[in-house]
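G., the chain you wanted modeled:
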Amino acid sequence: MWFWWFLFVCDLLIPIFMIVLGRMMWKRPPKKINRIVGYRTSASMRNMDTWKFAHDYCGRLWWKTGWILLIPSAAIHIPFYNGSEHAIGAVSGMLCVVQCVFLIASVFTTERALRKNFPGGEIRKEEN
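Predicted structure as tokens:
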């Protein structure tokens, strides 16, 4: 039973991480462009407009995705409460892979939004 609780808590870490850090990126992004903290890609670090946009976009995306992943991540474990350690470990491993796919996909989604809103990388595309 301790193994189930351990993996249950571990599998909730990624969604909670996405909720908390997404909210921080969205509401309180780093004030200056830096290579230590924040959403750091070459597209996001071109200027302050791209820096702020990337943090706002990725932060909102992580916040929403984290909440969407939290409930199913918890619910998937319930049927395996008295299951074997092998079954619990397999389910937990697959769940972790799925969560990581969502986490990594947010980078591609944010980069696509940066390219769409900042064609050429410097000037924000004007909305008509």
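Residues 57 and 110 are 7 Å apart (CA to CA).

Shout if anything looks off.
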